[in-house]
Write a structure and sequence with these properties.
The complex is a heterodimer of chains A (about 325) and B (about 260). By secondary structure, chain A is of the alpha/beta class. Helices cover about 30% and strands about 25% of the residues of chain A. Chain A has 2 domains: about 220 residues, P-loop containing nucleotide triphosphate hydrolases (Rossmann fold); about 60 residues, Alpha-Beta Plaits, CATH 3.30.70. The chains are: A alpha/beta (about 325), B mainly alpha (about 260). The interface between A and B is medium-sized, with 30 and 20 residues.
Chain lengths: ~325, ~260
């Protein structure tokens, strides 16, 4: 990762220990300014704990955090006004209307100007499509509406970074798409967006960067292109006379092959010359019915890193 | 807090105490012998203004501390259980400032509660009984205007009496994310303190108990007015506020907010 990039979030050997268990184990996050940074990991992998430490809600057991250039928790109060966040689901007073909830939380913040409050609250509600439900009490909101209200809360003021923990939780497919569009338009304004999810498909189309966390550790991090390059290219071959084919491939240095009932799969370098191999096979009178290079999807890559299982890892 | 229905329900319940008391006294025409029943009760029929004092006396052991415990126990734990605490802190609201604002809110509620007792008592007393110049415990008479001043003074005194308990409640509230637990613990502490205050074997401890001067508001109903217990009570409560405020501060500012 090029060091010249300005970082919105930087952690070094960040660790959080609960009793004997390390919820977060020495992670180094580098979130470039202006990126849409996907923070991916299965449930219970330590994503939310990491976010809590970045926002100063929980103290780190070890390691350092910088948020927008401010060391955390030392300069927390200087960093937070520039941060909008949604942490582990929205939370509001159920006996107050959506609008009054936003007004209350904005007036609790000494940094925000009371003169523009109503205007900002209404603009935020408008942006998440809640204008019509603004006067309803929150206990009458659906989960999706609460999620939107949580996003509105993060957008009450102009922000430099948005930290969104599972922002599409509880939303229907339409709502999910709207949130994605919202994130895109915010990113287009130059706001850094740090978004966590346990579903790659949710954020793959959005992100410019990705970090994958599992069991408290970061197992992959970088721009989308970098991560795609890291995943192993495979050669898939389908032909007759499999035994002879295997011998031939071995002479070409392709030894780590795996035999499937009707085809051969071999990991190869990304710039493997398929055409030459095909020529050789034809020359040796093989009947080739399929020959191609295959790039595993990010999804596969992600599952490879985090494991397939439904079981909670720890 | 005052946008919340629960707050109003509690104030309404507080207002009900003098009303029930006055109605019950009015319906039973039997004259009470002086000294029978709770102190002051015999005076209610002679002067309606005593209703508020008597109601305060009845509410002090349990009902008033109960409502105070609800409000104080809810301060931090209530926000934590809703999850709104994390959003307040990242708004950002400084942790110390949040504690101070929350505590001041409970004090406002205490004043609202004690004035409710007095005002509701005064009104229902005026409706059901004759009112006029009040004969004080010392036998002197004071004018109607002055007696209203005394009522306000007793309300302030009782609110001060509650301030130590409120500080304890605030501290307990920083220990948990279950508001009901914090409320219950606070009520229990108020009860324990009153019980200890009644054990003569522990008389050395009595003047240190935050409930010790609760009933001494009667000193404000003498002529000339006795301010000794007012001063000792205020000092004692300030001590409790300092100790439990500091405990709440040290606990809350280092706490991981995981709810």
């Amino acid at each position: 990762m090029p060091q010249a990039l300005e970082l919105a979030i930087k952690t070094s050997s960040l660790t959080k220990q609960f009793g004997s268990q390390k919820a977060v184990s020495s992670i180094d996050l580098s979130v470039p300014k202006g990126s849409v940074f996907g923070f991916l990991g299965p449930n219970g992998s330590g994503k939310t704990t990491t976010i809590r430490m970045i926002l100063g809600l929980a103290a780190a057991s070890k390691g350092d955090i910088e948020l927008l250039g401010h060391p955390i928790p030392k300069e927390l109060e200087h960093a937070l006004p520039k941060v909008g966040a949604l942490v582990e689901g929205p939370a509001f007073y159920p006996y107050m209307s959506g609008r009054n909830n936003l007004i209350r939380i904005d007036s609790a913040d000494r940094n925000s100007r009371s003169g523009t409050r109503k205007q900002r609250v209404d603009a935020a509600l408008e942006r998440v499509g809640l204008t019509n439900a603004a006067k309803k009490k929150v206990h009458a909101y659906s989960l999706g509406m609460k999620q939107r209200l949580g996003l509105a809360n993060a957008l009450l003021k102009p922000r430099e970074i948005l930290i969104l923990d599972e922002p599409t939780n509880g939303l229907d497919p339409q709502g999910t798409r709207e949130v994605r569009n919202l994130i895109r338009s915010l990113a287009a304004e130059g706001i850094t967006i740090f978004v966590s999810s346990h579903l790659l498909s949710e954020i793959e189309q959005l992100c410019s960067h990705l970090a994958v966390m599992t069991a408290g550790k970061i197992v992959a991090q970088g721009s989308l292109a970098e991560l795609r390059n890291e995943s192993q290219t495979r050669l898939v071959l389908k032909a007759d006379r499999i035994d002879e084919l295997v011998d031939l491939l071995k002479t070409q240095g392709l030894t780590k092959l795996s035999l499937k009932p009707d085809r051969v799969v071999v990991p190869v370098p990304g710039d493997f010359d398929v055409a030459s191999l095909n020529q050789l096979l034809v020359k040796k009178k093989f009947m080739v019915s399929e020959i191609r290079l295959e790039q595993p999807s990010l999804e596969e890559y992600f599952v490879n890193l985090t494991g397939e299982g439904f079981e909670v890892v720890r | 807090m005052f946008t919340r229905r629960r707050t109003w329900a509690m104030l309404a319940a507080i207002a009900l105490i003098p009303i029930l008391l006055a109605v019950a006294v009015a319906l039973t025409s039997d004259e009470l012998a002086p000294g029978e029943g709770p102190p002051f009760l015999d005076r209610v029929t002679q002067n309606g203004l005593f209703t508020g004092f008597t109601a305060t006396l009845l509410a002090l052991p349990l009902f008033l501390p109960l409502t105070m415990a609800v409000v104080a126990g809810d301060t931090i734990a209530g926000e934590a259980s809703l999850g709104t605490l994390r959003y307040l802190l990242i708004a950002p609201v400084g942790r110390l400032r949040l504690l101070v604002v929350k505590y001041l809110g409970t004090i406002v509620f205490a004043l609202a509660g004690t004035f409710t007792l007095m005002i509701a008592g005064g009104i229902i007393g005026a409706i059901l009984f004759p009112i006029g110049p009040v004969t004080l415990l010392s036998g002197d008479q004071i004018s109607l205007a002055e007696s209203i001043g005394r009522m306000a003074l007793v309300a302030v005194y009782t609110a001060i009496s509650m301030s130590g308990l409120l500080a304890i409640g605030l501290f307990v509230s920083t220990l948990t994310t279950v508001p009901v637990g914090a409320m219950a613990a606070t009520v229990v502490l108020a009860g324990v303190s009153q019980i200890l205050d009644n054990l003569p074997q522990l008389s050395w401890l009595h003047e240190w108990l935050f409930t010790h001067y609760w009933l001494s508001f009667a000193d404000l109903l003498r002529q000339p007015i006795e301010l000794g217990s007012f001063a000792s009570n205020s000092l004692l409560q300030l001590g409790y506020i300092a100790v439990f405020g500091a405990l709440a501060y040290s606990r809350f500012t280092t706490k991981d907010i995981l709810s």
